[in-house]
Amino acid sequence: MGFNGCEYMTGGRFNSWKKGDNFAAGMTGGMAFIYDLKDEFEKRVNPETVVWQRPETKYWISHLKDLKIEHYKETDSMLSKKILSNFENEINNFFQVCPKEMIINWEKPISNNLNLKKVS
């Protein structure tokens, strides 16, 4: 992925292991999972509109695993196979990225420590 990945993302789910500079600039919806073995992601993400963390809730960890399973079934990706074969450890190489404005709108919270309320 080149510069400005997920720049106009307004919904859906995205997962990638390649990232360019200015990732998520203007991202207003959806959820991204970034595989980051080289600890480069935090230097490349645009922090203005998104928050990121290591996946921590059972729901979103399971969701990510399901995405990887689907990707492997569709592509026979050796990297997906490697990730799935050691998922309990590989989960620590992912970042979960969410637009700030969406944090409280997800049906399932993205953090075990989130204590936010919707504003009407």
> Overall mean pLDDT score?
77
Question: How are the strands ordered across the major sheet?
Answer: 1-2-4-3
Number of DSSP-assigned strands: 4
SS strand fraction = 15-25%
Largest sheet, in brief, is: 4 strands, mixed
Helix content: 25-40%
What is the gyration radius calculated from CA atoms? 14 Å
Number of helices: 4
Estimated structural class: alpha+beta
| Overall 3D shape | globular
- Low-pLDDT segments: 1-15, 116-120
Number of domains: 1
Give the distance, in angstroms, between the N- and C-terminal Cα atoms: 37 Å
SSE pattern? EEHEHHHE
Provide structural commentary.
This protein has four helices and four strands; from the N terminus they run ββαβαααβ. The model is unreliable at 1-15 and 116-120 (pLDDT under 50). Helices cover 28% and strands 20% of the residues. The N and C termini lie far apart (37 Å). It has one domain (10-102). Strands 1-2-4-3 form a four-stranded mixed sheet, with no helix packed on it.
Question: How do you describe this structure in short?
Answer:
This protein is globular. Helices cover 28% and strands 20% of the residues.
Could you give the topology of this structure?
Layout: E1 10-16, E2 29-35, H1 41-44, E3 50-53, H2 58-75, H3 78-85, H4 87-90, E4 94-99
Parallel strand pairs: 1-2
Antiparallel strand pairs: 2-4, 3-4
Helix pairs in contact: 2-3
Features:
120 residues; alpha+beta; four-stranded mixed sheet; 4 helices; 28% helix; 20% strand; disordered N terminus
